[in-house]
Design goal:
The complex is a heterodimer of chains A (about 290) and B (about 150).
Chain A lengths: L8 H4 L7 E2 L1 H7 L5 E5 L6 H4 L6 E2 L2 H5 E2 L4 E2 L2 H11 L6 E5 L5 H12 L5 E4 L2 H7 L27 E2 L1 H7 L4 E3 L3 H5 L23 E2 L15 H11 L7 E5 L5 H12 L4 E5 L2 H5 L14
Parallel strand pairs in A: 1-7, 2-3, 2-6, 6-7, 8-12, 9-10, 9-11, 11-12
Antiparallel strand pairs in A: 4-5
Helix pairs in contact in A: 6-11
Chain B lengths: L9 H11 L3 H14 L5 H4 L6 E2 L8 E6 L5 E6 L5 H14 L4 H5 L12 H4 L1 H21 L2
Antiparallel strand pairs in B: 1-2, 2-3
Helix pairs in contact in B: 2-4, 4-7
């Protein structure tokens, strides 16, 4: 049975309103058959301190990532992971997390590589749910095993690799890191020196729009009008542009990818997950320092 | 396996075993307990953040203070937000392991102690680097402050 969409009026302005649900909607639909909620956080212990009742945990570092190949899990690995979490191919998967849904957007992007048919984000994420005083639980749900086929990962549509970015030089690109990382003053994200690169700066031609600008104070996405002011008026993107977004390892830029692709409806947006940790360390690829693209 | 390399001082060994004797599926729960046991900052620091050293290597801002009393005994103080239980857990482990030890004992803590807790695969090596950074800063302050 298909899980209905959230018809909240704010979402109707977005290109794909079906990609978001509100906290009100989720509170009402938590027990819907065919719906699974998954929490994906930066802090690996937050889920254990209390999560949305019935939600499973999904962790990038330890589950979605294959540390040996420095890649995402493959089709068999993804199928195994989803089945273990009680997620089937026809499950409506609702993702949420800490820090403006930063890692939840990343998990959603990874699900997109495997073409999961119905995956949505909880607008406002963990912060909004808690701010509204809604129920939390420390009970880890025991869901029946899901049935998930092995679907090969599609790396050609929403993912960009370094050599493709090299040929993309001169075309629209958005660097979503902090201004200090963009200019090259900082070799790493403030507070994250362990994921640094040997060179500081940005990919020539990339415009700097820090990812969190797309989020409002309460961690929800800004309205369509506000997002258009940022990405169209300020960054000069056009909806038919071929756009590459990147950050440090591709997690913050997943958030911007979600905004451009699903909320503003740009058809051609790819996330360069190698991002600055790869580009900044690569031999013979150009960089630019300073505030100018 | 580095987990078996060398011996740890007794208190550290006890903490390491508390983790490694716990099945994988329960180990994060143990980390959560350490995060809950981290004592609050005493008042003399709570109103004086300028006296605390920030540990920027942690994914979430963490502040610490180190005191070495005239008898050479080390006292540790930490502040980490509740929304950052992993960072609090690391601080809780170091507090339980090192607070009240002599300066020399603290300085002898093996650098790789964080990797001996069986957390590498559960927490990820990147996140564990935050605890190694805290330990490094604690040792530096102890060296500066011992008589």
């Amino acid at each position: 049975m298909a899980v209905p969409h959230d018809s909240a009026s704010k979402f109707q302005e977005y290109a794909q309103p079906e990609m978001l649900v509100s906290t009100d909607w989720l509170a009402e639909h938590l027990d819907d058959p065919g719906l699974v909620v998954a929490e994906s956080d930066e802090d690996v212990l937050l889920y254990e301190t209390g999560h949305i009742p019935g939600a499973v945990k999904l962790d990038w570092h330890t589950e979605l990532n294959d540390p040996e190949t420095r890649d995402y899990v493959d089709g068999a690995g993804f199928a195994r992971l989803m089945a273990e979490k009680g997620i089937s191919r026809d499950t409506t998967l609702i993702l949420y997390g800490d820090r403006n849904n930063w890692w939840a957007a990343y998990a959603l992007w990874v699900c997109t590589l495997f073409g999961h048919p119905d995956v949505r984000l909880l607008d406002g994420g963990r912060a909004k749910w808690i701010a509204e005083g809604r129920a939390l639980s420390t009970e880890v749900p025991q869901r029946p095993r899901g049935s998930y086929p092995v679907v090969e990962r599609d790396d050609t549509t929403v993912r960009a690799f370094r050599d493709q970015v090299v040929t993309h030089l001169g075309l629209p690109m958005i660097d979503v890191r902090s201004p200090g990382e963009y200019s090259g003053e900082l070799l790493h994200m403030p507070d994250y020196p362990q994921e640094g690169a040997v060179r500081g700066g940005h990919i020539p031609g990339a415009r700097n729009i820090p990812w969190a600008r797309a989020a409002a104070e309460d961690a929800t996405f800004r309205t369509r009008k506000e997002l258009e002011a940022i990405y169209q008026d300020e960054a000069g993107l056009r909806s038919d542009d071929d756009v590459v977004v990147y950050c440090r390892i591709g997690e913050r830029s997943s958030h911007t990818w979600f905004v451009l692709h699903h909320l503003l409806g740009y058809p051609h947006v790819r996330n360069y997950d190698g991002s600055w940790t790869e580009w900044g360390n690569s031999v013979r690829v150009p960089i630019r320092r300073g505030e100018q693209p | 396996m580095t987990a078996d390399a060398g011996t740890l001082p007794p208190r550290l060994q006890e903490i390491a075993e508390e983790f490694t004797d716990t099945p994988d599926s329960m180990r994060l729960q143990t980390l959560l307990e350490f995060s809950e046991e981290l004592p609050p900052l005493p008042e003399r620091y709570a109103d004086h953040h300028d006296l605390l050293e920030q540990v920027p290597e942690c994914q979430t801002p963490l502040f610490l203070a180190v005191e070495v009393d005239p008898d050479g005994v080390v006292h540790l103080f930490f502040e980490a937000p509740r929304e950052a239980p992993t960072t609090r857990g690391f601080a809780g482990i170091l507090h339980a392991a090192l607070d009240g030890l002599g300066a020399e004992e603290v300085l002898e803590t093996p650098e790789e102690f964080p990797s001996r807790l069986g957390l590498v695969d559960l927490v990820s090596p990147l996140r564990l680097r935050g605890m190694a950074a805290m330990l490094g800063r604690i040792k530096r302050q102890v060296r500066e402050k011992r008589g």
